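Protocol step 4 of 5: obtain the predicted structure for the target chain.
Materials: sequence only (see below). No template structures provided, no constraints applied. The aim of this step is simply to have a reference model before the mutagenesis design in step 5. Sequence pasted as it appears in the construct record:
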Amino acid sequence: MTQTLTSNYLDLFLRDVPLLDVRAPVEFAQGAFPNAHNLPLLTDTERHEVGLRYNEEGQPAAIELGHALVGGTTREARLQSWLRWCERHPDGQLYCFRGGMRSGTVQEWLAQAGRPIPRIRGGYKAMRRFLLDSLEQTSAALPLLLLSGRSGTGKTRVIEAIDHAVDLEGLARHRGSAFGRRPGGQPTQPDFENRLAISLLRLHALQETGGRRPVVVEDESKLVGHRLVPPSLYLRMKASPRVFIEEPLESRVQVTLDDYVSGPLAEYIQFHGEAEALDRLGAELLASLDRIRNRLGDARHQELRQALQSALDEQARSGAVEAHRGWIRALLAEYYDPLYDHALKRQGDIGAPLFVGSRADVTAFLRDAVRRPVEPGR
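Step 4 output (structure tokens):
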């Protein structure tokens, strides 16, 4: 029975084609694609046993063991889960690590059950290689605008308000500071790179139909939390024209309060339930403050820690968050602003900014900028 093999990786990612990943769960956890669903042929334990048999006795013996492990009721149960997935995703496609034996077996069983499905040539390894190559190409090809500003100026809000932008912090699930951790943790480095590559591919595809319009990226360090911004993109970012947001301190205090205290509580409720959410958020805020103790000095760290704890106690009693403003204001003025000034000084002469203004003015400027094609050669 002839089975369909496909290898148009660009189309898969641009159209967000549903992907059936039949690798073992441990493989999926190490790196996957945002449009993939993991329904493995072999569990982690079964894969380990088959691998040992392969090393000791060769491929035929390993195949024989695999069929013994996934036979009878086990095979039927897994087949039914794949069939249900195919019913929900009639345009889906199938892959394993290299697009070989495991996905070929699943494809054959599905065809025998009356549900043929295309198999992706080269599997995860080939698609991953395609995305890494595309990262290099799109990083070089896309014209960028770098959005800069002090902590609390609301850079992420501007990014979210523009349709021709890349949200590095969103893709990395981290707010890019000592207080940036989010419940649920960060994606793996391959997951981060895969999602970033797909975002850039989609923006690049728009360039081909609407002209070379600039893409807005927030000014980040090499690491967003523990995820490395690909060097090719990072170098392009630092060489790109800059737009600066300037906001008064009290506006920045409000943004920080919203983004680090009020807003995250809903996310903590989602992960930990309403009863534990505030305790979990409070513990993370205190731990974040402890991580910068050396920079603050012991005495100032202790003062701010007491202020933060008092604000958390008041929030637990009444639900009010206003008491958080004090420690936030102090951190912005005494910790984040000096860090920002030092970073600008280290960068030396970065040239005159393209635009400087309030968050509202910068948003309007960038919305207009991304509508206009960039001149050739820029």
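Step 4 remarks: The two ends are 53 Å apart (CA to CA). The longest strand covers residues 144-149.
Proceed to step 5.
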